[in-house]
Specification:
Blueprint (H helix, E strand, L loop, with lengths): L19 E6 L1 E2 L2 E2 L7 H12 L3 E9 L3 H16 L10 E4 L23 H10 L4 E6 L6 H10 L3 E4 L6 H10 L3 E2 L16 H7 L4 E5 L7 H11 L4 E4 L11 E5 L2 E5 L5 E2 L13 H11 L4 H16 L1
Parallel strand pairs: 1-4, 4-5, 5-6, 6-7, 7-8, 8-9, 9-10
Antiparallel strand pairs: 2-3, 11-12, 12-13
Length: about 325
């Protein structure tokens, strides 16, 4: 697939074809885009299910992994996409790591042993392995070397989002000045206990230059709070993502995920029963947008904006 932009961007942005845009999809129905068990057939199967299930365009997302896994899986996925030239609805990839905080809480469900210090040369290798198709990169703002990494990403045409990060207002402003555009799953990827005001939630909501990406499943952020966060950030600065887990689409139950136990409850909450942290979402993007509709505070035009138009603009 040639990444010339015109092939995958919506030709008529005021006439949404059939679904939504999802910038954070880790897998589906037991298929994990970050696992060495991924094969061309399993990747193809997951993509077909996602694209036929109400999502028009999406970014397969790799979480923090050993470097060799990035090489293997990025090359596998990009070849699978290129071999199917009608798959122009997958414009590239989101790397949610490895340049994130290894600290408890901030690292979320990622393995801290696989995190990396910001390394522009390693990012260049990732981009090479992806065939130049990394569209979105999540970075921790406070890490030493993050400035140079962000500058390199921008030069490579990669959109930078800040996440899994103990950022504050000052380093968030600095990231924005260097070209960062968004915040990954704002209000999540954080410790359970935070300072009352000097914390990444308030800093992210108050930084007017950065778009807030919110997981719209009602579990990452309760609905009444999500309403107020979207209102605070503003429609033009809001994007909804699914953060769909590799076990999204499964029935309630106990599963193995990322080498540990995960539980999906009857109401769709996906979490680790020991640490009690969320492990991505059991929702797909259409289910997230249905949840937003039921909150009954956004117009159809506003839903289209945060679920379709804004995501395209961010990675264009």
């Amino acid at each position: 697939m040639e990444d010339n932009g015109a092939d995958w961007k919506v030709k008529n942005p005021h006439n949404r074809p059939s679904g939504w845009i999802d910038l954070q999809v880790n897998g589906l129905k037991g298929i994990n885009f970050s696992d060495t068990s991924l094969t061309p057939d399993s990747f193809s199967s997951a993509c077909k299910d996602i694209l036929n299930g109400g999502t028009d365009i999406f970014l397969p997302t790799m979480i923090t992994s050993p470097v060799k896994v990035y090489e293997r899986n990025l090359e596998l996925m990009v070849k699978s996409i290129d071999d199917k030239k009608d798959w122009n609805r997958i414009p590239g990839f989101h790397l949610e790591g490895p340049f994130i905080s290894p600290e408890p809480g901030y690292v979320g469900a990622h393995n801290p042993a696989f995190t990396q210090k910001p390394d522009p040369d390693l990012l260049k290798k990732f981009q090479e392995w992806s065939g130049g198709k990394i569209k979105l990169l999540t970075v921790a703002a406070e890490l030493e070397g993050s400035d140079k990494l962000v500058k390199t990403a921008v030069k490579l045409g990669i959109t930078v989002s800040i996440g899994h990060s103990n950022f504050n207002s000052e380093n968030l402003k600095r990231m924005a000045s260097l070209g960062a555009k968004a915040i990954t799953h704002l209000a999540n990827g954080l410790p359970l206990n935070l300072a009352k005001f000097a914390n990444p939630i308030w800093a992210g909501l108050c930084e007017e230059k950065l778009i807030g990406m919110f997981v719209g499943d009602g579990h990452h952020i309760p609905g009444n709070i999500l309403k107020k966060m979207i209102m605070a950030k503003g429609i033009d600065k809001t994007i909804i993502v699914s953060d769909a887990s590799p076990i999204a689409g499964y029935k309630p139950g106990r599963y193995d995920l990322f080498g540990t136990t995960a539980v999906i409850t009857k109401d769709g909450r996906l979490y680790n029963p020991v640490k009690l942290n969320l492990m991505g979402s059991s929702y797909t993007m259409p289910k997230c947008m249905d949840y937003l509709k039921k909150l009954d505070f956004l117009s159809e035009k506003e839903l289209y904006k945060i679920g379709y138009e804004n995501p395209i603009k961010l990675i264009s």
